[in-house]
Amino acid sequence: MSAASPSKKQTKKHKKDSSTNLEDLQDVRDTSKKRYGRSQKIQGQYDGVIRRAEVWLKATCKNRSDADTNSVDEIDTEVLRSAFGFKPNYLSSKALELYLVNQCFVKGLKHQTGDKIFSAFNDMWCRAGFIGDYSFNKEKKTFLGNPAQQYEVKELVKSIQKRDKEGGESAKRNHAKAFLVEEIDAILAASRVVCPDKLVEIAIQGGLTRD
Q1: Which of 155, 69, 163 is nearest to 111 (CA)?
Q2: Antiparallel, parallel or unpaired: β 135-137 and 142-144
């Protein structure tokens, strides 16, 4: 006589009971995110990107304070100082845009750098609760969404990628000088026209002037 086969009840895997303890659930959430979420290596890279951006912003604001440029471009330097904070302000998207121009057009770094900068800030501001498409009320100086998701920022990232794809070795630039915000603005404006690659290079070489 053959042995009886185990019943479905005996072979069914045991499932743990669900929990209604919110504190326990939050602990499980945090542990799971740490174990299965973004690697520490990637998070470390993002943190490094933010730190380098903050150094640039601090130097930029110091130059602006010394030159008293607020009345020239209508950018509030005091607000700009905290634009790269965990909690963004209405100049965060502008600051990110200019930093991307400085790193990838002025210094000539590759599009991978631009991608990392975009991803790092997008991630940080998402974690701060600023999620979704960006919209800005100029009169009230208020905004909704993630500053990294501003249309101009995303288009700039695309233009950097396109430059590297089409420009090859000619897209590289070494020994870049320090640029002021208004000079970077001229390069940024050039990058938005029909032939961004050529005009950006003209701007970098000093061929574009501001009226």
Answers
A1: 163
A2: antiparallel
Cβ count within 10 A of residue 133: 11
Vertex 108: Cα angle to 205 and 155 (nearest 5): 100
pTM of the model: 0.68
d(CA 136, CA 53): 23
- DSSP secondary structure letter of residue 75: -
> For 126-171, how does the pLDDT look when each residue is reduced to its tens digit (9 = 90+)?
999 999 999 999 899 999 999 999 999 999 999 999 999 987 544 5
Cα 19 to chain center, whole Å?
37
Instruction: Determine the residue type at 136.
Output: F
- Residue 113 tokens read as 């750098």
Structure token digits, residue 91: 């100049």
- The answer to whether the CB of 110 falls within 8 A of the CB of 164 is yes
- The contacts of residue 12 (CB under 8 Å, 6+ apart) are none
User: Residue 94 in contact with residue 110, Cβ under 8 Å?
Assistant: no
What is the per-residue pLDDT across 5-45, written as a single tens digit (0 to 9) for each?
Answer: 555 555 455 456 677 788 888 888 878 877 777 778 898 99
Q: What is the pLDDT of residue 38?
A: 73
Token pair in block for residue 5: 């086969």
Which residues are registered as beta bridge partners of 38? none
